[in-house]
Design goal:
- The structure is a homodimer of 349-residue chains.
- With 349 residues, chain A is α+β, with helices and mostly antiparallel strands.
- The first copy, chain A, has eleven helices and 13 strands.
- A seven-stranded mixed β-sheet of chain A has the order 8-10-7-11-9-12-13, sandwiched between helices.
- In chain A, strand 1 (35-37) and strand 2 form a beta hairpin.
- At the A-B interface, helix 2, strand 2, strand 3, strand 4 and strand 5 of A face helix 2, strand 2, strand 3, strand 4 and strand 5 of B.
- Strand 2 of chain A pairs antiparallel with strand 3 of chain B.
- Chains A, B: Catalyzes the ATP-dependent phosphorylation of thiamine-monophosphate (TMP) to form thiamine-pyrophosphate (TPP), the active form of vitamin B1.
Chain lengths: 349, 349
């Protein structure tokens, strides 16, 4: 589809590697006080002074993590930054810098990479992170994006996965499951398009779901909100692989069990309607669907009053002694053991 | 070739993504004082105190940067770390941490990834860097390794590419060109093997060249040596793309010209002999061959006495006013303009 959309096509090899890097990175300005030197030397130079530094990295592979049939390159660039920034937010740290490496096959013209980098630049600006380095090379097949994100925080601000205690409340930001159903809608439209390329999709009923899939946002705002509410979570993780996987990570690393209540799960009305249309159980989607990039965290019971009624946060359950296991309590009051299904990129081949 | 060598093959998908990451990373111990938390949370946590932080990243792609027909996976793991550590050394900083992400097709069994990670672990130990994070996923084709390296230095220790002045001496560590000729020897053997799989290669005459290609080392020792000699380079870069490219980077960023003298280039006798056998000009190889991972740096004339006769360092030329251009002065005393040829991974497809 890319080929059709770009009447002008410039071969990447016309610029050469150095020319390409210069061309794609000249739009990046350094805004973080901690960035002393960005792109242009053997390494970037940073100064975090007395702050702790957090580092996270993610690899996105065409055909495994994204499908360019329905993922516009600008959106892909944006999302690839969000995915990494989300990990920094999940430490309760402030994202500050990213490096961006791409491997790309020669079917991509320069104009395609410009779109990708426009999305990267937009996200970098939106989240206030400096693009301080990267690598650009060819691939044997498809597009691959590797991003490393850095962030900073005071030592006493950082929140790990292993600090939750029995009786802590389990809280989720925003709503969950929508990104997964957005993907199902897009996959269906792709099938329809393959059968009849002239069909005009009517996606009005799914705009929220599709936006959650194509243009997710990292919850950079949660750090600020929690700070204002004078809450420090005891444990925190971002929801990239699905609620079930993330809850299990928190419980295992904190040595707790938990009860999650089905009737507390925050679901968008569009998600519920679309699950009915697709004849899929909305709870299953909310628990196992990934890529929402909401934050899942635990707080002491004493902090409940601070978030009660706050529309940004939903208490979905509580931690227990580890012997009680990790369960979903259904609307029918039965307990089902949660399993880590999530997104297993390694099983997709 | 991998398939033949591994009678035991465990499918990666048997472990799942989390199981695979646990399995491959359990061997990594944190040794750097600046590593507060390594693998196991949303992000690693580091504390560099009053040091500056340097960050560099590289992407290695099968079929573009390496060929598994002659590159053993353990060597590849080792080299992928070296390539990144070398960039940190080129800032005159001390390498401290790396993240390692890999994308791998399902033709690789678990045992192959174990070999790769054994090489990564060996290099991490050798260079004293902690493996603090990464990502593991499937690829549509082949193997891809993305590493980000971090290092630390005091602000006044850092050496950039842009500090060289006219009349500064240009110095190279070790010898150059051998890694490129090692590749030529391996490529020739691959051709022979394809014609006659039973042929027994006799590589005794090329051991140094092959080692330089398959198991290069980053010059972590140079920082210590220069410190002991009380020399601070004015500009520095590592030789990954070839001397010519790197000299041009230094000159352009420092706004200088230069004269490099052909008869000063440090060439190993095995390189000279093999170039004769292959009927290739050794100077061309020394100037355009990449992957030596030696350091190229400039020093003030006043520091010449400190390195005179030191077998680790060779003065190969001097910086000039920018108007004089960037030249190689041949043995016949003619001047040839240097061009950035280097390794252009984007032209290899």
């Amino acid at each position: 589809m890319i080929e059709d959309k770009n009447p002008q096509r410039t071969s990447i090899s016309q610029l050469g590697e150095f020319g390409l890097i210069d061309h794609l990175t000249q739009q990046f300005e350094m805004a973080q006080p901690s960035t002393l030197k960005g792109i242009g030397d053997d390494a970037a130079v940073l100064d975090f002074k007395d702050k702790k530094v957090v580092v996270s990295t993610d690899l996105l592979v065409e055909g495994v993590h994204f499908d360019l049939a329905y993922m516009p390159l600008k959106h892909l660039g944006y999302k690839s930054v969000v995915v990494n920034v989300s990990d920094i937010c999940a430490m309760n740290a402030k994202p500050t810098q990213i490096t961006v490496s791409i491997a790309v096959s020669n079917r991509f013209p320069l104009e395609a990479l410009e779109e990708l980098f426009a999305g990267i630049a937009l996200a970098a600006k939106e989240y206030g992170v400096d693009v301080i380095g990267g690598d650009t090379t060819s691939s044997q097949k498809g597009l691959l994006i590797s991003i490393t994100a850095l962030g900073e925080a005071d030592a006493d601000e950082l929140v790990y996965r292993n600090g939750a205690k029995a009786n802590d409340l389990i809280v989720v930001t925003g709503d969950i499951g929508a990104a997964y159903m957005g993907l199902q809608v897009l996959e269906r439209e792709k099938q329809v398009f393959q059968v009849n390329p002239n069909s005009q999709p009517d996606l009005d009923a799914y705009t929220y779901l599709i936006e959650r899939q194509l243009k997710p946002e990292a919850r950079k705002d949660v750090r600020t909100m929690l700070h204002a509410l004078e809450i420090k979570p005891t444990g925190m993780i971002d929801i990239s692989d699905g609620l079930s996987s993330e809850v299990i990570h928190l419980c295992k690393q904190s040595n707790t069990g938990c009860n999650i209540f089905e009737d507390k799960l925050p679901l968008d009305p569009q998600l519920i309607a679309t699950c009915e249309e697709f004849n899929i159980d909305a709870t299953t989607v909310a628990i196992n669907g990934g890529e929402d990039y909401e934050l899942l965290f635990t707080i002491g019971m004493d902090d409940f009053d601070k978030i009660k009624g706050n529309p940004n946060f939903t208490v979905i359950g509580h931690m227990t002694d580890p012997a009680e296991g990790i369960h979903l309590v259904t609307r029918a009051h039965t307990k089902i053991a949660l399993k880590a299904r999530g997104w297993n990129a390694l099983n997709k081949e």
